[in-house]
Every structure is written in C-alpha cells, then in structure tokens.
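<goal> How does this chain fold?
<sample>
Here is the protein in question

***
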Amino acid sequence: MALQEFLAPEKKTTSGVYLDNLTGVRALAVLWVLVFHTWGIAGGGEVSLPIPLLDHEIGLTRFVSRGAWGVDIFFVLSGFLLTLPLIKAGAGRLDRAGILHFYRRRALRILPAYHFALLALIYLLLFGLGQLPTAVEMVQDALLVNMWLGTPPLRGVFWSLPVEATFYVVLPFLLLIALRSRSFSTVFLLTILLTIVFRFAAVTTGAIHSKGVYLFWFFGARMDQFAIGALFAYLCLHRPASPRRGNLCLLVGLVGLLAFASFIARRGSDALENGDYFFYFFQTIVGLLAGLLIYGAASEGKLARALLGNGLMVFVGTISYSIYLWHTIVLDVYALTDLARATPPDRRLLAVALYTWPPALLISFFSYLFVERPFLGIRHGAQNPNASFIQRYPVYFLCLAALALGALTALARFTHQFNH
C-alpha cells in the first residue's frame, strides 16, 4: 500500500500511460549504467560471479563493459512512452497549443532535478571536483542547448540530456507527418535508415571532425533509437502482445542484449578506429532489442511482472532519473578520496559500490521527493490565480533558475580566483 501511495503522482501525470513493468525497465537501464560507471571508477578489470557450491565462476566483464547501453534503453523507452499517448490523441492534439503544452510538460519533467544537481555541482567544482565552467557555459548547460553551441557537458552522463531534449522538439512534427501520411511506419522506418546513412557519411567523409557535424552528431546518431521506440508504441497500440507473446518478446530482448553485448565485446572497443562496418548500425540493433524488451514488458505477462514489476525495481525506476543525474557526481567525489585504495583488485568493485551506492541512492531519493515530485504536481495542476509564482509560471521560473545558476557560477569563479 505504501508503494502505491508513493507512485500515485507518477500514475496521475503520465497521460494515462503507466505500467509498473515499464518503470522497471527504467530501473534496469539505470542500474546497468550505474554498474558500468562503478566498474570504471574501480579501475575496470575482470568481473566474475562465483557459483555457490561449485568451483566455477561466470564471467560478467563483457556485459558490465556495455553498461552505456542503459542510455540506449532510455532513448527507446522515451520514444515509446512519449509517442503512445500522442498517437492515441491523434493529429488533432498536435496543434500549436498542444505542442506547447507538450513542451511545457517535458521541461517540468527534466529541468528541476537537473538544475538541483547543477547547483550542487557548482560548489563541488569550487572545492576541487573539476574545473568551473564560465557563467555562459553554465546557462547553456542549464537550458540544454550546450550541444548546439559546441559546449561539452559538465559531467559525462549529462551529454544525453540535450539529445533527449532535441528529440522532444522534433517529435510532435514527426508525428504530424506520420499521422497524416498513409503509412505511419514508413516515416519512422525512413528515420532509422537516414540515421544509419548519417553515421556512415559523417565518419567516412571525415565530417565528424568538423564543428558543424559535431554539434549534430550525438542527436543525429541516436535518432534511430527514438524512432524504434515510436514504432513499438504504434505496434503496442494496434497489436498489443498477449501475456504469453509478451513474455517471449521480453525474454528475446533480454537474452538478445546479453548475447549481443558478448558479440560486440569480442569485436573490440575500437570499431570506429578500425573502420569496422558494424559500427554504423550496431546501435540500431541495440535499439531493436531494447524495443522488444519494452514491448514485452508492456504486455503485463508473468515474467515481466516478476522481473520488472516487483516493488524494488519499481522503486528504483521511479527515482531512476535522479540516480542517473547524481551517481557520477558521487562516484567522482569518491574518486578524489580513493577510500578503497588498499582494497585488493578483485574486491575493489564491491568496495566502491558499498562506499558510493548508499549515498547516491539516498541523495536521489530526496531529489525525487523534494524536487521532482513537487513539479510532477505542477505539471497537471489546475491554474490557480492565488498560487505561487512557481506554480503559475513554472517554465519562466526554470529559465530564471538557469540564469541564477549562471550568476552563481560567475560568483564562484570570482571567489576561486580571489582566493588564489
């Protein structure tokens, strides 16, 4: 009962599209990313799982080292979850007012927790976590336009946020074309094909090294995964999977991702440098396998409920966005202290996890509870002339917050230079 009360705001603010299993997919994605980055901070190396009572170990390194695919799962899931309610509503909801309402909802979903993380990051950078950005760079990051202006993200994982935001911008227009065309699938299949062509052209012509293509690279090279999510949303709406078929799709998606991770690991991590043709479409395959997993999870089959719909996975999935924002910050703080330096290499991954995961999860929980959750209520709250400025004009408030982050960054830089 307590978990259901905790999830009530999530279920209220998802346009009628909510499944515990899909929240569990978020948990799967963020945990894969979390393990991957923890492994990196621990120094990499071999990872194995001993089998009790047997003198045997299962090698996990090739799966752990592909943890960045958790971001790919997030991209496919975004395409799925955002497209499904818009398809249901039809082209009539995609007028000017409907598109602006869509943008408002997305801004209120991703910016508050992100701004909170950036605020903390200013002070951590001031005390040695890294180099302080300029005030202009901070504002660019806070408004998620840094990718288009050639500004690198403040933290590695933050690269995905402007990619996601750009997809939000183009999705309504892609859907307008798709819903008014004779074939919905053709528009998104063509998007997938164009993405692969773009990867090939950008790399083989050397254009990826030019600034113009660099600005477009991350978004253009991942658009196929959002399109795959949209296609599976269309399939789920018009041909929903039975529990039995859903379980099969889920199993194929999970096993397929693990098998493909092993296959890619054997090909080596320098596929781009070696001119490996597989580089141009392996992310599309990852997206298709993630789409199968999501399609299966949406079926409410017993396997999906057991693996993804259990209480722990639903809880982690609910706070997954804050975990994604905060985990590398906590890991970087830990790296400065190197508390596990005396730990034997074969136990270092476990030691790093024990030092970093509890604070990362605790901070993420409070970030969700006191930052994300209030803005979830604002997203669908009725207009009230007596409400606070934040409740009445939340988007304006977030823009002002971005400017305030820039001002604090300028003050931090001045303080740092003054003290040195």
